[in-house]
Amino acid sequence: MALKIDKDHQRFRQIVKGKIRGDLRKFLTRGELIGREGEKAISIPVHGIETPHFRYGDNNDAGVGVGDGESGDPVDGQEGDMGPGGTQEGQHIMEVEVSLDELADILGDELELPRIKPKGSHSITSEKDRYSGIRTTGPESLRHFKRTFRAALKRQIMAGLYDPENPIVIPVKRDQRYRSWKPVKKPQSNAVIVYMMDVSGSMGDEQKELVRLEAFWIDAWLRRNYEGIESRYIVHDVRAGEVDRQTFFRIREDGGTKISSAFNLCRSVLESNYHPDEWNIYLFHFSDGDNSSESDSRECCRMLREQMLPHINMFGYCQVASAYGSGNFINVIHEHLNKEENVITSRVNTKDDIFDSLKTFFSPGK
């Protein structure tokens, strides 16, 4: 039987999740959440949750809200006096720890995202404990109450001690039953995400913040769907290079843009490390849509169509608004790759667009 405190804690967690769902659009745009990310949980500020407590008073009928008065009258009858500082405690914002898996589940529920169905073979296995049997000894935390009760009932019936008119079943030590486990090999669905970002002069701090938030939630959702996942990061202006995660979100360069340089490097990384029969491959490119030439934009589409799209789950292109970029690359993609089912594009002009962009990328469940 679950303890009352356990039930209260479960109910509290449900309330917390409800608050997060109600403010999900706002949470998606909070850049500080990424900074608080740990190995397992993120601390999230949640408004409006009070710890239950008694409130004492004198129970008389006098006070604020009772008696004569007009709208706008001062409560104490005096105008202009600020009075001394208060002595009562204020209401504080509560921070709760929520795992990334919980956040990803809430995101999936609210965006009505389908679970992703991995493709390819499973080349990596992990060993996990699986509860698959019953034994007569074990820790109390693994006691199987239904099996214990059944054993006690059977013993009392066989001994003639069971009274249907007074059906009391009292387990003794030999009736105790416990769950047992054994290690099992579990296949993992492997996935690789390659993030590519334009870091030319037209991509400023505001544009990179949009990319940072979008990439964080993309990563959280895909990690919820795959047990084995790797992330690779490519930045480019007229030349492309692979960097680590921290550099990807912090680098600032200046210069022109040649998007095909990133696609060439991405293709090389995939061919060298990730066979499409064994890996689920997701590519995401972030840019303001500016490119060195129309011919390079068309070359990018040719590379995608002939060399990359047949082997990957999805290519997602996210175009962020910039006052300096031409914004035309997304139009070239629509013109040349509009019939490709695993090409998805979205526009993010402000942080408020991230919610809809994520839904656009993953609604097909590719």
CA radius of gyration is 29 Å
CATH first level of the largest domain? Alpha Beta
Low-confidence stretches: 35-39
Structural class by sheet pairing and helices? alpha/beta
Number of helices: 11
Give the SSE string: HHHEEHEHEEHEEHHEHEHEH
Q: Largest sheet, order of strands side by side?
A: 7-6-5-8-9-10
CATH homologous superfamily annotation of the largest domain: von Willebrand factor, type A domain
Which topology of the largest domain does CATH recognise?
Answer: Rossmann fold
Can you name the CATH architecture of the largest domain? 3-Layer(aba) Sandwich
Biggest sheet record: 6 strands, mixed
Domain count, please report it. 3
What this model shows, in words?
The chain has 366 residues and is of the alpha/beta class. The chain folds into 3 domains: 1-50 and 94-110, no CATH class; 124-186, no CATH class; 189-362, von Willebrand factor, type A domain (Rossmann fold), CATH 3.40.50. It contains 11 helices and 10 strands. It has a 6-stranded mixed beta sheet with strand order 7-6-5-8-9-10, with helices on both faces. Strands 1-2 form a two-stranded antiparallel ribbon. A two-stranded antiparallel ribbon has the order 3-4. Strand 5, helix 6 and strand 6 form a beta-alpha-beta unit. Helix 4 (100-110) crosses helix 6 (205-225) and helix 8 (259-273) packs parallel to helix 9 (294-308). The longest helix is centred in the middle third of the chain and has 21 residues, at 205-225. The model is unreliable at 35-39 (pLDDT under 50).
